[in-house]
């Protein structure tokens, strides 16, 4: 485990942290092409002359109880080096991760996935059986989200997220490699054919350009459009990094005023 430099984890009153009881992943969409986690794992594996561990999904029993030893409140990115809802992660191990999260109630835990259907199935089943399975109901200190990169993945993943039981639902639009209409004020049919209002179902949007030597461009107008959509829907938005003049910029002092957003959601109950 390590203190994190990910700026959207630095919520007031919380220490930014990562926790990786699961590591390794496989690509599922265009956003995975220049995966920073895979590149980081590759650098470390070359250092030790080992095979890149990211190429194999692994469960780490020795890391499960680490959050129970944190004394000060953390905002923790769970499985920053993998995907908890990967098909190779046994459901029993996911359950054990959730039990630790429930016990570590002082901290906030953020899980992002590109495997939204498995997350939905898991959360719906656990919620349905909460009355008879101790500790299975979704924790109120757990924030669930999907990673999207363009309109196609947004249309695939966000509606499924909005059907997922969670205290806080978020969208990580990173790397942003195309314009995205989040449709935050839309109505949509649920699985029973009834119209549902989406306006109060999304709690947070984090977005940023791609980084690294092979990064793809991110137009400022794409970012501004998402910020405007969030403002109109009163959804907190956090701009992580921008593509300015062909370089990645992390310093807000050189950003347009509309982009200087580092907002976190208010933590409420489950919805």
* Termini Cα gap: 31 Å
Q: Which percent band covers the strand fraction?
A: 15-25%
Q: List the domain count as a whole number.
A: 2
Count of DSSP-assigned helices: 5
Number of strands: 13
The helix-strand sequence is: EEEHEEHEHEHEEEEHEE
What structural class do you assign from the helix and strand content? Answer: alpha/beta
What's the shape? globular
The oligomeric state of the chains shown is single chain
Question: Average pLDDT, to the nearest integer?
Answer: 87
Secondary structure: helix percent: 10-25%
Largest sheet: 9 strands, mixed
Strand order of the largest sheet: 1-2-5-6-7-8-11-12-13
- Poorly predicted parts: none
Rg over CA atoms = 18 Å
Q: Could you explain the architecture of this structure?
A:
With 271 residues, the protein is an alpha/beta fold. The protein has five helices and 13 strands. The strands form three sheets. Strands 1-2-5-6-7-8-11-12-13 form a nine-stranded mixed β-sheet. Strands 3-4 form a two-stranded antiparallel ribbon. A two-stranded antiparallel sheet has the order 9-10. It is globular. The relative contact order is 0.12. The protein folds into two domains: 107 residues, no CATH class; 126 residues. A hairpin with a 5-residue loop joins strand 9 and strand 10.
Structural features:
271 residues; alpha/beta; 9-stranded mixed beta sheet; two-stranded antiparallel ribbon; 5 helices
Provide the fold topology.
Blueprint lengths: L1 E2 L11 E5 L2 E2 L12 H12 L10 E2 L14 E5 L12 H13 L4 E6 L2 H13 L13 E7 L2 H12 L5 E6 L13 E3 L5 E3 L6 E5 L11 H14 L3 E8 L2 E3 L22
Parallel strand pairs: 2-5, 5-6, 6-7, 7-8, 8-11, 11-12
Antiparallel strand pairs: 1-2, 3-4, 9-10, 12-13
Helix pairs in contact: 3-4
